Amino acid sequence: MKKILVVLLIALCVLAAFVGCSKKEAKADTYKVGIVQLVQHVALDAATQGFKDALKAELGDKVVFDEQNASGEINNCATIVNGFVSSNVNLIMANATPAVQAAASATSTIPVLGTSVTHYAVALDIDKWTGTVGTNVSGTSDLAPLDEQAKMIQEWFPNAKKVGLLFCSAEANSIFQVEEVEAHLNKAGIQTKKFSFTDTNDIASVTQKAADWSDVVYIPTDNTAASNTEAIANILIASKTPAICGEEGICKGCGVATLSISYYDLGVTTGKMAAKILKGEAKVSEMPIEFAPVTKKFNADMCKTFGITPVAGYEAI
User: Do 138 and 280 belong together in one domain?
Assistant: First the structure.
């Protein structure tokens, strides 16, 4: 009788171990992806959607998203990401620079893919940039050629002598873009002046100062500006001061022309990178930052409002 009990006990142990292995295998076949997006606006929304569509196309029902928005509050990014780390997600997609910074600080083991990030070396304070972060972070960049954006200002407004640089001082990548464009404009003999707002509370007053001083305003790929294009447009139109913008979403809201990318396509590229990581086909530490092609576009309504004839070679948004 004792022998029978021992045999049954062993059999139950083997069965339990088998079931446990089966559960682990099933769990390994399901991937939980945390998405942290800094703020809701057209460009970032498009990047997130492109990411999800691409990853679903690759993995189908095997991927589950935990999508959260920080509502423009940088501190919320850290809270959201720490939650992802606690729940042990398989991958984090961080949409916008502050989101990537928060994710990189929160974990050194979970793969992190950024998108809508202008320059990873600036965002992550990397001295010697090779094109690859080299840690658990990689992703895609929305950086358009800044020298070409500076040339656009001269191309559209050849008589402009003063260009106001309008941006959020809390966004590191906005500062980087503004400084690069400023250097190119100064080299061409054009006077520039920085007009920085800290958040939405002072964006109207700072925009008014920029409009009063400038012949033309330049707005980089700035998340705070992207969330407040209507307020900016109202001031620029009333002051009869046109703007050249760093991306299509901002240009559609308050600008005349842009050299921009498709944020949806940028998200798709990020999603394909995520699929390779989750399927074990690539290591995040070895993946170089990827980019999207740029296109020249103009805002037909804003051109009409300012009485500007669109420059040849640009397509309407």
Answer: yes
The answer to whether 297 and 258 have CB atoms below 8 angstroms apart is: yes
Residue 87 has pLDDT above 90, yes or no: yes
Q: CB neighbours of 17 closer than 8 A, spacing ≥ 6?
A: none
Q: Containing domain of residue 212, as a range?
A: 146-260+296-316
What is the Cα–Cα distance from 188 to 316, expressed in whole angstroms? Answer: 28
Instruction: List all residues 6 or more positions away from 7 whose beta carbon is below 8 Å from its beta carbon.
Output: none
Q: Average pLDDT for residues 121-145, to the nearest whole number?
A: 94
Cα 187 to chain centroid, rounded: 29
In-domain check, residue 11:
no
The three-point CA angle 89-221-45 to 5° equals 45
119 and 173 fall within a common domain: no
Quick: pLDDT tens for 55-71. 999 999 999 999 999 99
Residue 203: C-alpha distances to residues 3, 139, 163, 200 (Å): 81, 30, 18, 5
Residue 293 has what pLDDT? Answer: 86
- Cα separation, 59 vs 234, in Å, equals 45
> What is the pTM (predicted TM-score) of this model?
0.78
Do 237 and 304 belong together in one domain?
Answer: yes
Return the structure tokens found at 14: 């083997």
Q: Are residues 187 and 64 in the same domain?
A: no
Q: What is the pLDDT of residues 145-180, one digit of tens each?
A: 999 999 999 999 999 999 999 999 999 899 999 999
Neighbours of 86 (CB within 10 A): 9
- Tens digits of residue pLDDT in 214-244: 999 999 999 999 999 999 999 999 999 999 9
Q: Domain tally for the chain?
A: 2
